[in-house]
Design a protein that fits this description.
about 10% strand; binds (2S,3S)-3-hydroxy-2-methylbutanoyl-COA; globular
């Protein structure tokens, strides 16, 4: 349905219409082209306004049509060419979002009017692409090379006010954006067209040079950045038409690249993971919450709630801990304010949403309770027994445990159907991932409500079954275990970390351990070993470091040593000595380990464990595992997550390498049945039928 009210006093309003986000593809562009033709040939029409249906402009090109060859027509560029060719002015009325190809369409218009809450972005870089419909040529001409590079290489949205400052929009609407745009369009009628393509881009060599220096190496996910920078340079150096041709060629190369396909896989996998269980009721948003435990996690979770507009009470029985939490929260918001990343009004509103209490009674009338106390079973069960008596019927009772049995926690309440794991990642007000742990008796409605809370808190929610370490930590254990063995076999920590960093992680396992604090893992290992002594090969290095009080950055020494006040890891010969000692005790002869072996021995067991998790129904889809690792553990998005990456390598070669490692290093490398099966059948995680979720007995 396209509204074409030609005689809105001589202005015809056309609307992009393709629910839910008005993505641009043949089925949305074709009717628009038709209506534009009608408007152009209608003598009573003096100007055109282009808007979007249902209060949003457009989420960009329809990514679901990517990879279809030949690429389906008409598409975004056909609409842009028609707007450019129109003898009558076209004004864009931007409500909601104008992203990617949607913003590029608006850039082809004579002028742009944005609603005060509109968001404008060119997020193609986050899809491993560049703006491929003229955005790299028009934007620098309109707002300058520097600001254009910031928008194109950042991919982040700008608000209407900022867009006006930049000159990206001509007006911020006082009232209805379509009305304002119609008024502006009328004033432009009969005047020469204002085509951005005819403007010149002001040279800014410094901005281009700075962008080149900052860009990631192509092999480390920087393909799109380098291509986009080259395009923006063209906007200054070559005529518009030539710039468009070069932009197109680079865009076609990128869309065929694994880096782009992997990033788009993550985009859609994230949305699949957020889908509520079939038959679950549509949950109402939570308005009030209580977070139990004023430690690092509780404090971060309370901030995440306040950031999302939820009134939250942080509860801790120890007043001094509560005061410390209050100070940390004020400090964090103050820092964000001073960096200009938060307005004073927003700062004050967020702080005002957080209350503090020293009694669990504060959880009596809230929609959501999140327990984040000490990671000890009896401490958590004690809290849940009390919450069961206090919390209102129908409230979500969530535990932030990262390793403990959610069923054992739910089991002490009379309402296990309302109990769910909500595993946040530190810092909880920053990290995007939220692992939602479905207990054996957690109801589908409670899972759906937890997923809705994740969306409300702007987190990426992924549902995991209840097992030791859920999805993320269970896989992490296989990776860090091998990293520990590689140390003993002769690969120094800085070498292993360098291999993992070159692969694309923000940091390697040892720098990450030192950042998180080695004592956290040590406590879990001691608890676990009290229940089950370690089976098979066990590296003593981590325990030995902790026994020496080397907990990482927080004690100035861990796998590395740190100069006071510095977070830069410095290789420490004392650690090499400790590693040699452990190797000797374990009868391990040290050798030179190749980088290729380091990468495979760290990543392949992780993939193998992912296959086991899928086969057990702990994760419903391979994409869920990829999303967990990209958003929770820094797995490079340009590789799409561990299972997408495995498909790109080929499962047959992974199974072959696992079998080789199995012969040398034992059953930690025994390929899982699902992996073998897929490899043998020439299958892949990307094409496998998702397994039905079933409840495994807790290992
Ligand atoms: N193409 C296809 N489907 C899309 C889509 C798109 N561009 N954007 C969203 N969807 C689907 C999404 O999968 C979900 O489907 C539903 O819409 C709602 O999305 C030439 C080539 C716009 C901010 O990168 O960032 O333009 O799961 O849950 O939270 O240069 O969607 O319900 O089946 O995210 O309200 C560039 C991507 C494309 C923006 C709305 N554009 N989208 O957020 O809804 S490349 C983007 C978003 C391009 C040109 C190039 C967000 C949103 P389903 P949602 P939301």
């Amino acid at each position: 349905m396209v509204e074409n009210s030609a005689n809105r006093d001589g202005v015809s309003v056309l609307r992009i219409d393709n629910p839910p986000v008005n993505a641009l593809g043949p089925h949305s562009v074709a009717p628009l082209l038709e209506s534009l033709r009608t408007a152009v040939s209608d003598p009573t029409v003096r100007a055109v306004v282009l808007a979007g249906a249902r209060g949003t402009f457009s989420g960009g090109a329809d990514m679901k049509t990517f990879g279809v060859t030949p690429s389906p027509r008409p598409h975004t560029r056909d609409l842009i060419d028609a707007i450019e060719a129109s003898p009558k002015p076209v004004v864009a009325a931007i409500e909601g979002v104008a992203m990617g190809g949607g913003l590029e369409v608006a850039l082809a218009c004579d002028a742009r009017v944005a609603a005060s809450d509109a968001r404008l972005a060119l997020p193609e870089i986050t899809r491993g692409l560049l703006p491929g419909a003229g955005g790299t040529q028009r934007l620098p001409r309109l707002i300058g090379v520097g600001p254009a590079l910031a928008m194109i290489l950042g991919g982040e949205p700008v608000g209407a006010a900022r867009a006006a400052e930049l000159g990206l929009v001509d007006r911020v609407a006082r009232g209805d954006a379509v009305e304002d745009a119609a008024e502006l369009a009328r004033s432009l009628a009969g005047a020469p067209r204002r085509r951005v393509s005819e403007q010149a881009a002001t040279p800014d060599a410094a901005a281009l040079e700075a962008a080149r220096r900052k860009a990631q190496p192509e092999a480390r996910g920087g393909l799109a950045e380098h291509a986009a920078i080259a395009c923006v340079a063209d906007a200054v150096d070559v005529p518009f038409a030539e710039g468009l041709v070069r932009e197109r060629q680079r865009f076609v190369d990128l869309i065929a690249s694994e880096q782009s396909k992997a990033r788009i896989h993550v985009f859609f996998a994230e949305r699949e993971a957020a889908k509520p269980p079939a038959g679950a009721a549509t949950p109402a948003p939570v308005r009030t919450a209580a977070v139990i435990g004023g430690g690092t996690m509780g404090t971060g979770i309370a901030m995440a709630c306040a950031n999302a507009g939820v009134d939250v009470t942080l509860v801790d029985l120890q007043p001094d801990l509560l005061e410390r939490a209050r100070g940390i929260i004020a400090g964090n918001y103050g820092a964000t304010l001073s960096k200009g990343k938060l307005s004073q009004a927003d700062h004050d509103a967020r702080i005002a949403r957080i209350a503090f209490a020293t009694s669990l009674d504060a959880a009596a009338n809230v929609d959501l309770v999140i327990e984040a106390v000490f990671e000890e079973m009896d401490v958590k069960q004690d809290v849940f027994r009390k919450l069961d008596a206090i919390a209102r019927r129908g409230a979500i009772l969530a535990t932030n445990t990262s390793t403990l049995d959610v069923d054992a926690i739910a089991g002490v309440t009379a309402r296990p159907q309302d109990v769910v794991g909500m595993h946040f990642f530190s810092p909880a007000n920053v990290m995007k991932l939220l692992e939602i742990v479905r207990g054996a008796r957690t109801s589908p409605d409670t899972v759906a409500r937890a997923l809705a809370v994740a969306k409300q808190l702007k987190k990426v929610g992924v549902v995991a079954g209840n097992c030791d370490g859920f999805i993320g930590n269970r896989m992490l254990y296989t990776y860090t275990r091998q990293a520990g063995f590689l140390l003993e076999e002769g690969a120094p920590p800085q070498r292993i970390d360098a291999v993992i960093k070159d692969f694309g992680f923000p940091m390697g396992p040892f720098a990450m351990g030192d950042l998180a604090g080695l004592d956290v893992g040590w406590r879990i290992r001691k608890r676990r070993h009290a229940e089950h002594p370690p089976e098979g090969r066990y590296s003593r290095v981590a325990d030995r470091l902790c026994e020496l009080g080397r907990f990482g950055q927080k004690t100035g020494a861990g796998y590395y040593r740190y100069e006071s006040g510095s977070r830069t890891p410095v290789p420490d010969p004392d650690v090499d000595a400790i590693v040699r000692e452990c190797a000797r005790e374990g009868g391990i002869v040290q050798r030179d380990v190749a980088d290729d072996e380091i990468l495979k021995r760290c990543m392949y067991p992780l993939i193998n464990e992912g296959a086991k998790i899928l086969a057990e129904g702990i994760a419903a889809r391979p994409g869920d595992i990829d999303v967990v690792w990209v958003y929770g553990y820094g797995f490079p998005a340009f590789r799409g997550g561990p299972l997408r990456w495995a498909d790109a390598i080929g499962l047959r070669s992974i199974v072959a390498d696992l079998e080789t490692f199995e012969r040398e290093h034992g059953d930690a490398f025994t390929p899982s049945p699902l992996l073998r099966e897929l490899a043998a059948s020439g299958g892949s995680f990307g094409t496998m039928k998702t397994v039905d979720a079933k409840e495994p007995a807790r290992a």
